[in-house]
Amino acid sequence: MQPIYIVLTNTGTMFTKAIKSVTNAPYNHASLSLDMNLKKVYSFGRKQPDNPFYGGFIQEDFIKGTFSWYPETTCAIYKLSLNDNDYKKLVRYISMFEKNSEKYYYNLIGLFGIPFNKSLDVPGAYFCSQFVSEILKRSGVDLFKKKSALVTPDDFRDVEQLELIFEGQIYDYPHLKGWINYNPKRYKNFPFRKYVKQQLRSEQRKYYFRDGFVKPKKILMEQQMRKMKNITEMFDDFK
């Protein structure tokens, strides 16, 4: 038997809060991990942490990905054992998604069908829980007696085959701490203004801390960046 892991999370963003107001569920995002340390985690979601409208198939990164912007993210991690044949099929399907990742899109339309119990399937498009459910179904593990486009992250909490192994804040998960040297909470009191000033003259769209970690999301607030850049350029003219 081969273990895989279902990771349910709640980042607390405005988008997830809007979903939670409708579903009243503690978690609103589902991912599938091939390992306990969460190094190989797959789902459908944001491709860029600062752009909630650009989504698709992603391999989630807890160091430089979206989660690093939300250190207070809560999670529930479940273990599911597959036989060797089903596990091999699962790995092949994930590999197919990886090789053709640009052909897949986030199924935002499908989310609107869930409250009405109406499956809105869009070719080449999935939302997070739809992807996890569908890829398991294709691999021979059908956890739900309904279409994948009607499966929500909260549905996984009621599956008897899943074993809950951790629940709490994602960066408190002990197996995650075992492979990453990163605690985003230590940047809580980071000298924001000094850091932004250092980065203003950079031509890159993304900004990182010296150790490679993504900065807090407020550093990328475009309006504030433009204002500060205009001020520094004005002072440069007097030099």
Characterise this structure.
It contains 7 helices and 8 strands; from the N terminus they run E-H-E-E-E-E-H-E-H-E-H-E-H-H-H. With 239 residues, it is of the alpha+beta class. The strands form 2 sheets. Strands 4-3-2-1-5-8 form a 6-stranded antiparallel β-sheet. Strands 6-7 form a two-stranded parallel ribbon. Strand 3 and strand 4 form a beta hairpin. The longest helix has 16 residues. The mean pLDDT is 81.
Mean pLDDT across all amino acids:
81
Helix share of residues? Answer: 25-40%
- H/E element order: EHEEEEHEHEHEHHH
Give the strand order, joined by hyphens, for the main sheet: 4-3-2-1-5-8
Characterize the overall form.
globular
Strand content: 15-25%
Q: What's the number of extended β-strand segments?
A: 8
Query: What are the low-pLDDT stretches, counting only 5+ consecutive residues below 50?
Result: none
Q: Helix/strand-derived class?
A: alpha+beta
Radius of gyration: 20 Å
Number of helices: 7
- How far from one another are the termini? 69 Å
Major beta-sheet overview? 6 strands, antiparallel
